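call fold target=Transcriptional regulator, LacI family
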Amino acid sequence: MKSKYTTIIDIAKQLNISKSTVSRALTGHPNVKEHTRKAVLELASTMEYQRNSLALGFSKHTTHTIGIMVPEFMSTYFPSVIVGVQDVMQAAGYNVVICQQNESYETEVDNMKLLLSYRVDGIIVSHTKETRNFDHFALAQRRGVPLVFFNRVPEELNVPNVIVNDYEAAFQAVEHLISIGRKRIAHLAGPDALVNSRLRRQGYLDALKKHGIPYNPDLVLSYDLTIEKVKIYMKHFLDLGTPPDALFAINDPTAIAAMEVVKAKGLRIPQDIAIVGFSNDLSAGLVYPGLTTVAQPTGEIGRMAAEMLLQELNAKVKNDYTIKKAPTTQLPTKLIIRESTVAKTK
């Protein structure tokens, strides 16, 4: 059976009135007689009429819809940020369209085209690990669509953004490993193209330098954030003539996958090798032993990104939307110490 959405034309035909009268009745226009308004609303309910918000937005040059573009849903980080965004945007009367790129640059470009075709009022973004070309974001800027980035922020664009101090957080994480006596600290780093990966790596290096521990290139590997590579590289670390006694991982999924390799090898955590992750993913407190990690305020990141976007949207409404030095909001992190670095005493 062919399905069909009810339109104001259908309602107008049924009641033998003009579609403009139906439109005014549905929007509560005072010039519509009460009996007509009641008849329109009753028939609209019976025929399951639903307003086309997108088309209405086109006519008013605003859709009251924003987009969120995130690289993946494998961890709880991005869903937690999205909840924060929705809390603010929905309270402000905006609908939210969520796009997940599965770490694919091509999908990211396609999703940007989709959001622009929907005439979204603004977009909140964390780009994929594959993204090297940012022309699709520059296109949104040229069309006057405000952008706010978080977590993964492009250096090439002048955009408002919400971040944490990745460098300082990594530095503190590695200092914690040094404080418990670890000296051969390995680092599974993210792709060099990601700014936050480079900052976390630099924090690792500077913590070693501060405490007089020589940098060993054999103990640092950058990878593409796939679990398969974690297993390969962690096995490589453990098979070294003198294996590491600690690991600082780019994120929690990396750290947890590394823990599985360690346990499969028959080694003990943290006695043989201590492990620290990054982000405080929900799974970090559920694995055994519990994972020491850097907690990021994900909900607050989302809320702050939404507040920044609202500021951009309000400036646009007031015709005050101009290219200027984009603001950066940096939120604090906290090192959560669990059993993967400090064993419980009996």
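return ok
Residues 61-162+298-331 form a domain with the Rossmann fold fold (CATH 3.40.50.2300). The first helix runs from residue 8 to 15.
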